[in-house]
Design a protein that fits this description.
The protein is of the alpha+beta class and about 375 residues long. It has three domains: about 110 residues, Acyl-CoA dehydrogenase/oxidase, N-terminal domain (Butyryl-Coa Dehydrogenase, subunit A, domain 1), CATH 1.10.540; about 90 residues, Butyryl-CoA Dehydrogenase, subunit A, domain 2, CATH 2.40.110.10; about 150 residues, Butyryl-CoA Dehydrogenase, subunit A, domain 3, CATH 1.20.140.10. About 50% of the residues lie in helices and about 20% in strands. It contains eleven helices and nine strands. The strands form two sheets. Strands 1, 2, 3, 4, 5, 6 and 7 form a seven-stranded mixed β-sheet that branches. The two termini are about 30 Å apart. It comes from Streptomyces diacarni. InterPro entries: Acyl-CoA_Oxase/DH_mid-dom_sf, AcylCo_DH-like_C, AcylCo_DH/oxidase_C, AcylCoA_DH/ox_N, AcylCoA_DH/ox_N_sf, AcylCoA_DH/oxidase_NM_dom_sf. GO terms for molecular function: acyl-CoA dehydrogenase activity; flavin adenine dinucleotide binding.
Length: about 375
Amino acid sequence: MDFSLGEELEAVRELARKIFTDRATPERLRTVETSATRVDQQLWDDLAAAGLLGVVLPEEAGGAGLGPAGLCLLLEEQGRCVAPVPLWSALVAAMAVSAHGSARQRAARLPSAVDGSARIALALEEFGPAGPDAPLTTATHGADGWRISGTKAAVPSPGGAGHVLLTAATGAGPRLFLVAADAAGLTWEEAETTSHDLSAHLGLDGAAAEALGDPGSGAVRGTLDLASVALAAVQLGVAQGALRHAAGHLAQREQFGRPLATFQAVRHQLADCYIDIEAMRMTLWQAVTALEDGEGATRAALVAKWWATEGGANVVHRVQHVHGGIGVDIDYPVHRHFLWGRQLATTLGGAGADLFRLGEELAHGGAAS
């Protein structure tokens, strides 16, 4: 299978890499980590000004139509630099609105997503044993439209979001809904994450909502598949950035008069990291191809997410280990890759949950939702 990139995608990757590298410096990251929002708004504005927030959306929405491939290139570059902007959640939400929203919903929400003036937060997780494809949050339809009640857990970076895209159960199965972030019946409880980003638990008590997509259209399943692939792309970048730190550190650090990089045990650790990263890369781009072709997308997305969850966590753990004591020093940048890797490895469920869902998919073929 050929995973080579076309000219347009290569240009997007180079532009994204330059912006993230220039902006996400260790000094800048330390400043953002102590800010009120934990989001680098200047970097977000730079991405919008460069047109990168819209590259994943269709041309009629003001984007470049690069879809999942463009999304994953952006997220991989973000992960390399652990740049603190809510890119994966905002872009997945915007792509879901583009794919499943009505003409009115697209016209109302996508222009601000492209220019960065308003984000759409993404609320897919809940407390308790329910998986993201079986929400306990409920939506009921009455004379005044849809009303939603329930709780969404750990909504990523809700600050600055004008609307929230969430899943809720209905009599016809789970569906996607849009809720205004300041709607009556909403309560937000701030929560800090492992990676120092701010999230929030969202309570809904009869909040007015707009439905996206028709029952049985596959909107929920498609959005979850896209979210899984997006997380895998960020984790791939995080792992690559961590390995880069390790290679630089071990080439310079000496023990017994020799660079640490020449010790066989250390080289085996880095070789294991490289193998995991290549497996993450291969399964990610297989999933991107499946999403774009529409065949076997759920299976491919779950495989990619499992590799990102398991392999990504292993890489950041090994990298921190080979750094020794400096690996846990918060003044040394590699600790951020470890924290991001651990946070991403639990988002939308850990490795065990991914394998369980994959087993169900292989056994039953999955049901459209």
